[in-house]
Amino acid sequence: MQYCEGSRLIACPPMPMLKSILVASDLSSRSTPAVQRAVRLAEVTGAALCVLHVVEDDLLEDRMRHEIWSAEDYLTAQVASFGKPGACEVAVLAGHAFHVIGQEARTREADLIVMGAHRRQFLRDVFVGTTIERVTRTSGRPVVMANDGRGGPWRQVLIATDMSEASGQAARKAHALGLLDNANVTFVHGYAPITRQMMTHAGIPAERVHEEAEREFQATRRELGRFIQGLELGDLNYSARIIEGVGADAIAGFVQQAKPDLLVIGTRGLSGIKRVFLGSVAQDLMGSVEIDVLAVPPQG
After folding, report:
1. Which CATH number, 3.40.50.620, 3.40.50.300, 1.10.10.10, 3.30.2000.30, labels domain 1-17+150-300?
2. Which pTM value belongs to this model?
């Protein structure tokens, strides 16, 4: 059972806030889509762009100087090959990558961090502990994981929602940054037909099971509609889909079916002891899907 509804939210739209972008590159092919995406966003929005590369701080002085010069030359040429952002700086700094990226994002008051996908390994796809995973869960800023090497505009945007405050914050932030402009936006909510499963297991007649399942489904549909309206996203065209299944697998399956350009997800905040997780759904999606992903942390 699926629900699909189109609508338009009517309100005064906020002014886009994307004024500063930080893109981190490790100079590998995985970072190329990130630099390309960041250059495009900077050109479209007029945001200031910083292209950052971090070298290890345990190199000998001569070697470090050579690494810095080489990286600066490489990134300057790469940016020029993708476009001409109005304000662009190439920065090469020494230190531990995720620490430096987070610090530079705070220093520059970056509205958005853009990074390439993590390194996927044969027969083993490890996401936890990678630089992008650590930046996403500790920087306190929205992070785009750029997978799409084409660098085209995000025309089809999918917003995954469990109707929590975290997923609502993700939608609001994407809209406020202007990332939903001129896009076809779809909210997708995973739905588990618990009543149907329980009644079927109890041997209740199929007709009664169907009636109760439909009632439960319609209640979820109304709840999702109220949730989206409550986000106050301005004059936004959108559709809403309710799909059977919950968690990352259900969303990933819908991503394969719908083939959006961008997936928007919310993440969890830091725990009291700093042993933090993005949240299993966000973590699993960022570790598996092969489209661009915008991960938005809770509002600080």
Report:
1. 3.40.50.620
2. 0.86
